[in-house]
Amino acid sequence: MSSAQKQKVFTGWHMLAIMIAFFGVIIAVNLTMAFYANSSWTGLIVKNSYVASQTFNERAAEGRAQAALGWNGDLIVEDGAITYRLTDASGSLIPLDGVKLIMHRPVTADEDTTLELERRPDGAFGVDHGPGDGTWVVSITAEAGLDHPYRDVRRIVIKDGALR
């Protein structure tokens, strides 16, 4: 028999090698995805959902009362600074006792930032802080002399250091 007539025989060892390679790739991909999922975002919204649910109705009522005021929050991000002012329906500036701002990325806790804004000469509150470009969730708490703080939560996009 010549070498051209010899056929390669597919044995059980060949099948074993194919199965190990196939499942090895699947396991490697799953482990890689699990690693990145675990290291990128905790998924934690509140520390204890039961405790958070106990105040839901109160916070919803506060939100309805706040909406009835007709106030507008103006958030400005530019030139390495963040400025916030609160105005009433007629556009008059509402005097505030303090403003706290919490910024976090929607899918990671790595860049969470809490900022205490300072009163500016024009009556607005601001801080020199240039958040990085990208999408942010901003939670603003303003002390406006109400029974509860005025809350303003928004999702913003910053590009080239300015709000878009």
Run of helices and strands:
HHHEEEEEEEE
Assign the CATH class of the domain at 68-163.
Mainly Beta
- Would you report the number of β strands? 8
- How many helices? The count is 3
Q: Approximately what portion of the residues adopt beta-strand conformation? A: 35-45%
Task: State the major sheet.
Answer: 8 strands, antiparallel
Residue stretches low in confidence (pLDDT < 50, at least 5 long) are none
* Outline type: elongated
Strand order of the largest sheet: 1-2-5-4-3-6-7-8
- The assigned CATH architecture of the domain at 68-163 is Sandwich
On the 0-100 scale, what is the average pLDDT? 88
Instruction: Give the C-alpha Rg.
Output: 28 Å
Alpha carbon gap, first and last residue: 77 Å
CATH topology of the domain at 68-163: Immunoglobulin-like
The assigned structural class equals alpha+beta
CATH H-tier superfamily of the domain at 68-163: Immunoglobulins
**Helix residue percentage:** 25-40%
Keywords: Membrane, Transmembrane, Transmembrane helix
Transmembrane segments: 12-37
Protein name: FixH family protein
InterPro entries: FixH, FixH_proteobacterial
